[in-house]
Write a structure and sequence with these properties.
alpha+beta; 4 strands
């Protein structure tokens, strides 16, 4: 069963933009998450100054094995993004339209 983590962040730097976050995600953080065992990761624009990072792992065990690194990436990313982490959620994927 796949495991999904959802991290929400709020932009706090007036000089940073969602394009800046997008560039960093594509260049640095998506490859990092994939290297930690994630199957897929997405950046979602959820509000005027908020965004979410949704990551799918093959199992809770894979995510749990990488949690120390994921936590470090969250802290480092928030600083580089010019954002503040609001929340982090995780849970088993119960249903999906993907094959």
């Amino acid at each position: 069963m796949s495991f999904v983590s959802i991290t929400t962040l709020r932009m706090i730097s007036e000089t940073e933009s969602l394009q800046h976050v997008t560039d960093l995600m594509q260049r640095k953080y998506f490859p990092g998450l994939l290297a930690l065992g994630a199957k897929h990761s997405m950046l979602v624009d959820v509000d005027l100054d908020r965004f979410a990072i949704v990551t799918v792992y093959p199992s809770r065990e894979v995510r749990d094995g990488a949690i120390a690194h994921v936590s470090a990436l969250r802290i480092e990313g928030a600083e580089e993004f010019g954002a503040k982490m609001m929340d982090a959620y995780g849970g088993e994927l119960l249903a999906s339209s993907e094959a």
